[in-house]
Amino acid sequence: MEGVLERVTVVVPTIGRPSLDALLDALAAAPGDRPAELVLVDDRPAGPPLRPERPGLPPLRVVRTGGGGPARARNLGWRVARTDWIAFLDDDVVPDADWYRRLATDLAGLAPDVAGSQGRVRVPLPGDRRPTDWERGTAGLATSSWITADLAYRRAALASVGGFDERFPRAFREDSDLALRVMDTGARLVRGERWITHPVRPTDRRVSVRVQAGNADDVLMRRLHGPGWRAPDRADAPLGRRPQHLAVTTAAVAALGLAAARRPRAATAAALAWAAGTAEFARARIVPGPRDRAEVATMLATSAVIPPLATWHVLRGLLTHRRVGRWRGLPDLVLFDRDGTLVRDYPYNGDPALVTPVPGAREAVDALRARGVRVGVVSNQSGVARGIITRYQVDACMARLDELLGPFDTIQVCPHGPDDGCACRKPAPGMVKAACTELGVDPARCVVVGDIAADVEAAAAAGAAGIMVPTPVTRKAEVAAAPHVAGTLTEAVDDVLAGRW
């Protein structure tokens, strides 16, 4: 187990709930070695900075999404991490005192084909009364599979599938979808022996109505993974009462339609079917609960609303997700050509004072960094081989570029001429491969952005994706042959962030 935690980053997405304090207190007070880093992802659209600092925490970093939702927040968390393992915790759980030690034990010696380890969850329920409907629903987390309330993934496994699918807007099904995509690569997920406590979060009487929006996410799951996605060896997710909800809703619609058509007997029969179905649903929710006046009133009211609302969200999901493709996510690395792409092209420039960014360059590279995508530069500098400029001048210009648009995670320069036969000069793939090797990135998760054919050809030769941003000197034949063309650098980065790469 020695050194295991040095290879672990703990990622906690949060919207600033009060429960975060209990989580951080537990992580600060736990004995033993600490992970390499704790990344707290602030997923609030706005608000004052979080103040999570306290003695005893692992080295802490706070990053912000601007309110992208839990999938995007977790993606940013693992992308900014540089360790082999990413341990996700929700902001409303409390790890046991020995959580660090057991995490290290769970991860130590796992076979290479194990991509993730799930912790164990306890949900405390009241001991002096029966649990409410909301409390029983939360208790289901104790037996759920592959939930990221406590789940550690290999970073390489997350990168290989593009991380969490951000088309899941809620904290619902995004973790099951990720697990299925990871397992579809041939990897395994296992259960560890570490424990967290997941208290039942206080809520209002309308919570069971709001959660029906998840029915649209179930439609997306079916579109992505087929009708068998719920199976025990897959997501292990029960179907619930959706067939009954559809039947009750159909009866209600039929009753209204028949009444409008002045068919009273048939309308009455349909209305009785609706009433019977609604009553059965309400009874199923009331009997196991505390049966106090407030809970019974809530169950009666919401049991009438839930079936049509659930059915509506299913229909909404069918419309929204008519056509969905495989989630690619963001690339792990975007490499930019320098001259003509990031800065104005002054042939064989050796003067740092002439390094002038093109419009939108600063915003473009910053947008990638803000989403946790690493950025670098790959540049042919044959002026060195031709004796026009020196390598010192090239390095000085690169240093100026880094001042203006950096920091860059990698800078690759080829000083050779076109007749030198090197493996690094674009369109050869050497610089792209070297950048990927330096940062531990699969070239298939890399994008190269440039202004001429040599840039996109180098990308293709390395197994990366290429995007051409033509300039007035780009040949028309090169533009026509490019697999992906963007009008501006900003548009190219927008395409990358939208998954079009």
TrEMBL record:
<dbReference type="GO" id="GO:0016791">
    <property type="term" value="F:phosphatase activity"/>
</dbReference>
<dbReference type="InterPro" id="IPR006549">
    <property type="entry name" value="HAD-SF_hydro_IIIA"/>
</dbReference>
<dbReference type="InterPro" id="IPR029044">
    <property type="entry name" value="Nucleotide-diphossugar_trans"/>
</dbReference>
<feature type="region of interest" description="Disordered">
    <location>
        <begin position="42"/>
        <end position="68"/>
    </location>
</feature>
<dbReference type="InterPro" id="IPR004446">
    <property type="entry name" value="Heptose_bisP_phosphatase"/>
</dbReference>
<dbReference type="Pfam" id="PF00702">
    <property type="entry name" value="Hydrolase"/>
</dbReference>
<dbReference type="GO" id="GO:0005737">
    <property type="term" value="C:cytoplasm"/>
</dbReference>
<keyword id="KW-0479">Metal-binding</keyword>
<dbReference type="GO" id="GO:0005975">
    <property type="term" value="P:carbohydrate metabolic process"/>
</dbReference>
<dbReference type="InterPro" id="IPR006439">
    <property type="entry name" value="HAD-SF_hydro_IA"/>
</dbReference>
<dbReference type="InterPro" id="IPR001173">
    <property type="entry name" value="Glyco_trans_2-like"/>
</dbReference>
<comment type="similarity">
    <text>Belongs to the GmhB family.</text>
</comment>
<feature type="compositionally biased region" description="Pro residues">
    <location>
        <begin position="46"/>
        <end position="58"/>
    </location>
</feature>
<dbReference type="InterPro" id="IPR023214">
    <property type="entry name" value="HAD_sf"/>
</dbReference>
<dbReference type="InterPro" id="IPR036412">
    <property type="entry name" value="HAD-like_sf"/>
</dbReference>
<keyword id="KW-0963">Cytoplasm</keyword>
<feature type="domain" description="Glycosyltransferase 2-like">
    <location>
        <begin position="9"/>
        <end position="130"/>
    </location>
</feature>
<dbReference type="GO" id="GO:0046872">
    <property type="term" value="F:metal ion binding"/>
</dbReference>
<protein>
    <recommendedName>
        <fullName>D,D-heptose 1,7-bisphosphate phosphatase</fullName>
    </recommendedName>
</protein>
<keyword id="KW-0119">Carbohydrate metabolism</keyword>
<dbReference type="Pfam" id="PF00535">
    <property type="entry name" value="Glycos_transf_2"/>
</dbReference>
<dbReference type="InterPro" id="IPR006543">
    <property type="entry name" value="Histidinol-phos"/>
</dbReference>
<keyword id="KW-0378">Hydrolase</keyword>
